[in-house]
TrEMBL record:
Homodimer. Its EC number is 2.2.1.1. One of its GO terms (biological process) is pentose-phosphate shunt. It comes from Bifidobacterium aquikefiri. InterPro entries: THDP-binding, Transketo_C/PFOR_II, Transketolase-like_C_2, Transketolase-like_Pyr-bd, Transketolase_bac-like, Transketolase_BS, Transketolase_fam, Transketolase_N. This is Transketolase. Keywords: Magnesium, Metal-binding, Thiamine pyrophosphate, Transferase. Signal peptide: none annotated. It is an enzyme of class 2 (transferase).
Length: 700
């Protein structure tokens, strides 16, 4: 932090922040003015004195990261970005919540300079901030593990402001528990305790001692109040700074600082009132606020130029901090040329030269005719590329052995004192992640790792439990960040665990998320090629690999065609001479049934083309010519086969196509028998093909 000095100009800047926030919501006609008004002194103190940042270079690698978890209070951050000189203008504040704005209702990653992540749904900002702290620690371990704490160019801090809604959401509890277990001393959370949410006083639904809860998680905790013992209110930024300085001295635990405040203070008639949380204040209240703060009630978006100039001096301090960091990283580069080469590669998002060879060598070991679960094939690929990609790390929600997400020989990412009999090799820079049974936090944390570091995480669970992870998956898709989900046990073939664990609607559900690439490989070859393309693909979006528990045949057909075919999303696996009579499309474990059905149909003189469709999303990226080549519009008879509901397939089936699908929940019983009992067989594919051909003929 800087030497803390508070002047009249700082007071004036805070007052201006309050007025600008009120005006922006009033002009928009909607929004959340209360929190930005009362958070103004806290956010200003952080940006001016605690957060290391350079407004001239918002992506500076040496910066601290700030996450406003309560994204509805976005003006808190926008005003400070305007004050600090990030390029946001007064016009941007005037366009708050409008179409085409750089100041949307909730912060959006990639849109506004200085915004580290999209924080819309409450709790995910705080949970992802834990991932930011994970990523910082792992990257430091890759590049500068022996440096004394606080001396490395890869040391930075993660700052968060959150509110009651954030800590009420379960995902923040999941992630905060992990943060305490990990002893993330680079993470500081400021909890704005204003005791107000939309329905009123938070005691309606939130009554525990939050500091004791976080203390139980293993966090350092402290409390500071703007509400004085006599009931008066004082925005004592000097006192707050002392509390934050004290917390900064703690390096072996994450920090949780509760600040008691009054929402919308000092707005007449709206202070401590729930209406100020989610609605504009109204012209009378805004005028009253301006009078109290010494502003002209008849003017809107009034700027105190002297106070603004004072606030923007932070940009010069940022340049100085950046210059110091440049010297530090230059010295590190000279002392560590090999590590510097690694840093340059991963910071540029480039793959190692050995990447393709690692996959090729593995593919050479596959044997057509063998039977291997795609989850096992996935584990083999992870370990092959992990050997040449030190930036690759990950794990599962307590399912590493089942998901095959364990990296052989890797230390666990956890303080060494917490090593276990099962995982004796543990240190703070390990690459094997353990999330416990916390799917949602796992997704949010890996989002934070991607956003806060140059490393590449993956995470896994059973496909059924992607439901628990889904909100963070959606946020990754919205931000267009390449998170990798390894979801195994993908069908009713799971068997004995029963219908609670057997995904039916899940393929349709995750395919319904825009900008998420869903990949369901048929065998070992397709699994390897799915990984290859995911990492090679430009502008990679998040991807979900949907994998089998049961063994599936390694196909001779995919050996020759998967390398080029998988990256196209769909390709011809088995073809006919001349125009086919019917097109049979399949994914995953059902491709084998499509191939078997085609052979039987051929014996009856019916020409069936088999198309493997590992990824609808990748197929849709192809040009019209290729799509027509694979699925010729002249062939109306079509069949899809997939062990789930048929909903996603109707766009390809057309008017006469027949799905082979499962339209009910699963069954208790043997997995192979479940597939037969629910109609996922080659025989049913044959019947569907004949029925589709008959439907076409009847219509002609």
């Amino acid at each position: 932090m800087t030497d803390f000095k508070w002047s009249e100009l700082d007071d004036r800047a805070v007052k201006m922040a309050k007025v600008l926030s009120a005006d922006a919501v009033e002009k928009a006609g909607s929004g959340h003015p209360g929190s930005p008004i009362s958070l103004a002194p806290i956010a200003y103190t952080l940006y001016q004195h605690f957060i290391k940042h350079d407004p001239n270079d918002p992506k500076w690698a040496g910066r601290d990261r700030f996450i406003l978890s309560g994204g509805h209070a976005s003006l808190t951050e926008y005003v400070q970005l305007f004050f600090s000189g990030y390029g946001l203008t007064l016009d941007d504040l005037k366009k708050f919540r409008t179409a085409g704005t750089r100041t949307p209702g909730h912060p959006e990653y990639g849109l506004t300079p200085g915004i580290e992540m999209t924080t819309g749904p409450l709790g995910q900002g705080l949970a992802s901030a834990v991932g930011f702290a994970y990523g910082q620690r792992y990257q430091r371990g890759l590049l500068d593990p022996d440096a004394k704490a606080g001396t490395s160019p890869f040391d930075h801090k993660v700052w968060v402001i959150c509110g009651e809604g954030d800590v009420e959401e379960g995902v923040s509890s999941e992630a905060s528990s992990l943060a305490g277990n990990q002893e993330l001393g680079n993470l500081t959370v400021i909890f704005d305790a204003n005791h107000i949410q939309i329905e009123g006083d938070t005691k309606l639904a939130f009554g525990e001692d939050i500091l004791k809860r976080y203390e139980a998680y293993g966090w350092y905790t402290d409390e500071f109040s703007f509400i004085q013992p006599d009931g008066t209110y004082k925005e004592d930024t000097e006192g707050l700074a002392k509390v934050l300085e004290k917390a900064e001295a703690v390096t072996d635990r994450p920090k949780f600082i509760k600040v008691d405040s009054l929402i919308a203070w000092p707005t007449p008639g709206k202070t401590n009132d729930p209406s100020s949380h989610g609605s504009k204040l109204g012209s009378e209240a805004v005028a009253g606020l301006k009078k109290v703060l010494g502003y002209d009630p008849d003017k809107s978006f009034e700027v105190d130029e002297e106070a603004l100039a004072h606030a923007r001096e932070v940009a010069q301090r940022g340049l100085e901090a950046h210059a110091e960091w440049d010297q530090k990283i230059d010295a590190w580069r000279k002392a560590n040329p090999d590590k510097a080469a690694l840093y340059d590669r991963i910071s540029q998002g480039k793959l190692p030269e050995e990447f393709d060879k690692a996959i090729d060598d593995l593919v050479d070991t596959f044997e057509p005719g063998s039977k291997v679960a795609t989850r096992k094939a996935s584990g083999a690929v992870i370990n092959a590329i992990a050997a040449v990609m030190p930036e690759l790390w990950g794990g599962s929600a307590d399912l590493g052995g089942s998901n095959n997400t364990n990296i052989k020989g890797a230390a666990s990412f956890i303080p060494a004192k917490d090593a276990t009999v099962q995982w004796p090799d543990a240190n703070e820079y390990g690459r094997q992640l353990h999330f416990g049974v916390r799917e949602f936090a796992m997704g949010a944390i890996t989002n934070g790792i991607l956003l806060g570091s140059d490393t590449r995480p993956f995470n896994g669970t059973f496909f059924q439990f992607s439901d628990y992870e889904r909100p963070s998956v959606r946020l990754a898709a919205l931000m267009k960040i390449p998170n990798l989900y390894i979801w195994t046990h993908d069908s009713v073939a799971l068997g004995e665990d029963g219908p609670t664990h057997q995904p039916i609607e899940h393929l349709a559900a995750v395919r319904g998320i825009p900008q998420l690439e869903v990949v369901r490989p048929a065998d070992e070859y397709e699994t390897a090629e799915a990984y290859r393309y995911f990492f090679e693909k430009d502008n990679t979006l998040p991807a979900a690999l949907i994998l089998t528990r049961q063994g599936v045949p390694t196909l001779e057909e995919t050996k020759a065609k998967a390398r080029d075919g998988v990256r196209r999303g769909a390709y011809v696996l088995v073809d006919t001479e001349g125009e086919p009579d019917v097109l049979i499309m399949g994914t995953g474990s059902e491709v084998q049934h499509a191939v078997a059905a085609a052979k039987s149909l051929a014996d009856e003189g019916i020409k069936a083309r088999v198309i493997s469709v590992p990824s609808m999303e990748w197929f849709e990226e192809q040009d019209e010519e290729y799509r027509e080549e694979i699925l010729p519009s002249a062939v109306k008879a079509r069949v899809s086969v997939e062990a789930g509901i048929a909903m996603p397939w109707y766009k390809y089936l057309g008017s006469y196509g027949k799905p082979v699908s499962i339209e009910s929940f699963g069954l208790q019983g043997d997995g192979d028998e479940n597939m037969v009992d629910l109609g996922i067989t080659a025989e049913h594919v044959e019947d569907a093909a004949k029925a589709s051909i008959a439907a076409v003929e009847a219509a002609e």
